[in-house]
Amino acid sequence: MSDNLMRVQPIRNGTVIDHIKAGRGRKVLDALELIDKGTTITLLMHVPSKKNSSKDVIKIEDRELSASESQKLALLSPGAHVNIIRNFVVAEKNVAELPESISEMAVCSNGNCISNNERGAKTNFNIINDGSLSIQCVYCGRKIIENNIEFI
Amino acid sequence: MKHVVSISDLSKKQILSILKRAKELVPVAKGKKKSKSLDGKILATCFFEPSTRTRLSFETAMQRLGGTCIGFADPSATSHLKGETLVDGIRMVAGYADAVLLRHPQEGSARLASENSEVPLINGGDGAGQHPTQTLLDLFTINEEMGKMEGLNVGMLGDLRYGRTVHSLSHALAKFNNKLSFISPDSLSMPSYVTDDLSCDWSSHNSIEDVLNDLDILYVTRIQKERFPDLEEYKKVASAYVIDSDLLKNAKSSMRILHPLPRVTEISTDVDGTNHAAYFRQAFNGVPVRMALLEQLIGGKK
Description:
The complex is a heterodimer of chains A (about 150) and B (about 300). Chain A is mainly beta and about 150 residues long. Chain A has two domains: about 5-95, Aspartate carbamoyltransferase regulatory subunit, N-terminal domain (Alpha-Beta Plaits), CATH 3.30.70.140; about 100-150, Aspartate carbamoyltransferase regulatory subunit, C-terminal domain (SH3 type barrels, Roll). Chain A is built from three helices and eleven strands, in the order αβαββαββββββββ. Chain A has helices spanning about 5, 25-30, 65-75, and strands at about 15-20, 40-50, 55-60, 80-85, 90-95, 100-105, 105, 125-130, 130-135, 145, 150. The longest helix of chain A is centred in the middle third of the chain and has 10 residues, at about 65-75. The longest helix of chain B is centred in the last third of the chain and has 20 residues, at about 280-300. Chain B contains nine helices and nine strands. Chain B folds into two domains: about 5-130 and about 285-300, Rossmann fold, CATH 3.40.50.1370; about 135-280, Aspartate/ornithine carbamoyltransferase (Rossmann fold), CATH 3.40.50.1370. Chain B is globular. Classes of the chains: A mainly beta (about 150), B alpha/beta (about 300). The interface between A and B is medium-sized, with 18 and 19 residues.
């Protein structure tokens, strides 16, 4: 039995997010608001990986990640794998892919942007992936780099 | 073309077509020829922050083409103060008019409004954001003054950091392959989010003397007192960027000075009488350019 398997038990139902950029696991937990939801969560950080030198892994019991959560995940860690587990078996396996745009997912950092001032306004961003990852507000045009994205 | 929120909403071809039509409309703008191309059409002018030139030139443009305007020049007389959202206000106004002109203090307001307007929405300035009709009239002025708007050396002077007119104009001039020189104190220099996207040659300078004798166009903007925490510092900076007739002895005789107005002290009044001064003609040009745009958006007959 490999070291990795020894560390954590397999889950019966839920989601295993694998190949998260090393060190990003905590941010993923925060952004997806996985903590405080009552489900059992396991976070592994800096797990040795064949693909990269190390990775983070999150196991969420009894909860399947939604499509919009996968999009958020893609922004935080493009290329992360989302494995949906049903009865100990991988039922679905997806790679988190960057969408072209996101809606109602992040906050514009421009305090004078209409999206921060109009009651009921939704936020919308286009994704810019030209080597480095950033999002651009559809309304005011503000660009926010990956590290500074504040999720709703 | 349905809405005009940002100059980048317009293709090069659309810009050229507006400028061409604007040129034809100059006699109408001056009241020498009559037109009824927008007969019966109504423009709603919604000013959530005051503006003189933009509002008056749009109202003139509309009326010279036989159309009329409704609207407000000051939000204090509207339901905005009762807590009405911009989106609700725009949906209502769009039902009363054939096009809506919006000036609003917050960035992105025009884009949000356009998503909720059944009729064409024109951005008349959204905070520090976009002001596309100013850019169109700046381009028109450059073309009128120089006989072309490509291959020129264009200097931009003053507050390049917060000045929305110079941001949009830089993008537009880059499309037409001009060379840009940005002249400002370091604290007010052109932001990298503008220069990163420029597809033309550009350079930055602290002193106007470095580039003046090469320029075909000098676009001057006002350095605002509010940008400086210290009044002494403001005076020092502002006085270092004043254009007067003495300085202009080193400029090409064909060099033209533009300014979006209002000016305060950045262009000395002794420049007004020289060949270089184009800023009052530029202010007039707002009328034919806005006429041409309104015709294209509301679909008047020629």
